[in-house]
User: What shape does this take?
Amino acid sequence: MNEPVRRIKAPVRLEYTVTAGRALSRFLAGLVEGRILGRRCPGCRKVYVPPRGACPTCALPPDEEVVVADTGTVTTFCIVNVPFEGQTMKLPYIYASVLLDGADIPMLHLVNAPADEARMGMRVKAEWAPPGERRPTLESIRWFSPSGEPDAPFESYQEHL
Assistant: This one.
């Protein structure tokens, strides 16, 4: 009984219903098709991925659908070293903000690269699940992998940190 407690099982059950709405439903359907869809604000012209109901800057509903690239730039990242139940990536792994080409707001996702190679400005490309395995979730993009392109200059993403 002198050993420290390392883990406690505490089952929790939460039931809830989420309604995606029109814009987010289109975004999720796009993922099944292998496309990343954003929406552009009519005021500031920023493209949001995933789309939002209202632009946080202008308070206007983004009204124009935009297809963005599945390539982008790592703007910030963290190295995950703490194991948790159900994890799919081998420790340590990279969780990063990825500014997709054509978007104005980074999205969070996994980066499949050695942790010691993580860096701001790294160019990455989405690794998609095979078409038959895609579902209307961000898991349709398994992760982003280094694209082999030269790193993006800091000035190209500094406003997106």
Summary: Helices lie at 21-33. Strands lie at 36-40, 47-48, 64-68, 71-80, 93-100, 107-111, 123-128, 141-146.
